[in-house]
Amino acid sequence: MSVQQATNVKPINCLHFINGKHMPSLNGKTFDNINPATGEIMGTVAEGGKEEVDLAVQAARRALNGPWGQMTLNDRSKMIRRIGDLILERKDEFAALESLDTGKPVWLSSSVDIARSAYNFHFFADYMISMGTEAYQQDNVAINYAIRRPVGVVGLINPWNLPLLLLTWKLAPALAAGNTAVMKPAEWTPMTATLLTEVIRDAGVPDGVVNLVHGFGPNSAGAAISEHPDIDAITFTGETKTGTAIMQAAAKTLKKLSYELGGKNPNIIFADADLDEVVETTIKSSFINQGEVCLCGSRVYVERPAYEKFLEKFVAKTKELVIGDPFDPNTKVGAMIGKEHFERVSEYIQIAKDEGGTILTGGKRPEGLDKGYYLEPTIITGLNRNARCVREEIFGPVVTVQPFDTEEEVIAQANDTHYGLSASLWTNDLRRAHRVAAKLEAGIIWVNTWFLRDLRTPFGGMKQSGIGREGGMHSFEFYSELTNICIKL
Ligand code: NAD
């Protein structure tokens, strides 16, 4: 029995959540929510804009100056922990809605997206009570100490690929630092954010602390958040070009910004690495979540002596991946997010062919899956470093593989991009691992692994892959303001 049947979860219609109440848009506007696994309409979503964002910001400001601002650190921590507990209590429901919205396999939603979402609250609930601030005694002249305060009302703008995981990655530390929030999920994936508001209410979070406005980006709820004069900071995850638009809108009121943007991440394999281990992880770093993860290693570089052997094993394992119904427990690769994205990624496969690339496997819709947006995991070789598929973020189940001869050459190729989010490198040579890692231009570098996260560590991108870091103390640096108090002795 599939998880969907087991939990009997039905898609939900999505309303805004403003000042503790679910509500439709003031003008009653809605848009359709499409199931990517079938292409069919499965519900409606309230379409918010400036008016709804205004109401949400007013509620958030009142809550900041009211009960939330007055709550003790311990009580706030307990409440944040409770949100995590309630997510776990409703884990199957969350997982089913996440898979209905995104098309990803439900085992993945359950074991990664939802489990990590709950952990985001548990982690920051613990972290917040262990922090101190700086103090300096300046001879017998003065004592300086810093106090930490919330930034204020924070706007959260989120993408569709890991909807609840990334939303809670921002919301949990924002609340832990004492802020109030106005959140906008991606228009493609509104359901788990909506369910989260029920959990937030049930956890006893005061009205107005967390608000949710659904809608689109440009000329819609996203733009209204970006330019709202009473929002103090924006944390955004999404495409690099959207980051530019938000920055322009936010510039007028000089908001604090934290950005997690696109990537075109290298996966560098030296010939001395254990190839079976490399292939097992490379399958994940290439195709998990249909390749729709900002951290996916979409440019694979293999040292020449291992190139043929690697390709043989990689192609064979890729062909074994079961593609299909997100609710079938055997499915490894589900449906892509929607028609537009499916067509965009398919176009890249055509571009690769036009630029002289060879498709070793994949490249088309799987046979028998006529409805929904399914694409076979695709491996492309024979492209040079200037090919568009090597340079541009595709954000689907598509990787390029290229051979290399020297360390210097592969470092130069890996860094030849305006992105700088993550990189993986595989070698059993300890010195080389340290040497190469220090030269790769990326915010996160994995050696002999991928996607292994410790939430205390800095997470973010260099170059056009982001601004700032989140995680542990770094999250608090963004979500709080420090004031230094100097007392003359
Ligand atoms: P997107 O930029 O199209 O949309 C993200 C969000 O921004 C959505 O909620 C959208 O409605 C909103 N938006 C769009 N235009 C806007 C505007 N002009 N003003 C305000 N809001 C606007 O991104 P996406 O397609 O949802 O997500 C995929 C992208 O996200 C990829 O580039 C991927 O690499 C990136 N991503 C990065 C990370 C990271 O941690 N660095 C994580 C996940 C995804």
Protein architecture, described:
This protein has helices at residues 3-7, 50-65, 67-70, 73-89, 91-102, 106-128, 163-176, 191-202, 221-227, 240-251, 275-287, 304-319, 339-354, 388-391, 407-414, 430-439, 472-479, and strands spanning 16-18, 21-23, 30-35, 40-46, 135-138, 142-150, 153-157, 180-184, 210-212, 233-237, 256-260, 266-269, 299-303, 358-361, 378-381, 398-404, 422-426, 444-447, 466-467, 480-488. The model has no long low-confidence stretch (mean pLDDT 97). Helix 10 links the parallel strand 10 (233-237) and strand 11. The protein is an alpha/beta fold. The strands form five sheets. A seven-stranded mixed sheet has the order 14-15-16-13-12-17-18, sandwiched between helices. The chain is 40% helix and 20% strand. The longest helix is centred in the N-terminal third of the chain and has 23 residues, at 106-128. Helix 5 (91-102) crosses helix 6. 52% of the residues are buried. The protein folds into two domains: 3-261 and 465-488, Aldehyde Dehydrogenase, Chain A, domain 1 (3-Layer(aba) Sandwich), CATH 3.40.605; 266-454, Aldehyde Dehydrogenase, Chain A, domain 2, CATH 3.40.309.10. The chain contains 17 helices and 20 strands. The protein binds nicotinamide-adenine-dinucleotide (NAD). The site of nicotinamide-adenine-dinucleotide (NAD) has 31 residues, from helix 9 and helix 10.
